[in-house]
Amino acid sequence: MTVRIIRMPELSQKTGCARSTIYAFISRGEFPKPIPLGMRSVGWKESEVDEWIEKRQSLRDSR
C-alpha cells in the first residue's frame, strides 16, 4: 500500500478550509496531526484526511 503525503496547499484545497482553520482544528484535536517531513515542512497522510472528510459528511447526514 502506497502512503501519499499531501502538503498544506493541497490539503487546503481538498478540505476547503483555510490554513488557520486547519491548525485550529488540530489544536482542538479535531483533525489529524501533521507528519514532520523536514526542518520546516510538514505533511498529512491523505488517507487520514479522507477519513476526516468522511466523518464530517456522516455528521452532516445524521442531522
From TrEMBL:
Pfam families: Phage_AlpA
Coiled coil: none
Gene3D superfamilies cross-referenced by the UniProt entry: 1.10.238.160
InterPro entries in UniProt: AlpA, DNA-bd_dom_put_sf, Prophage_regulatory_activator
Name under which the protein is recorded: AlpA family transcriptional regulator
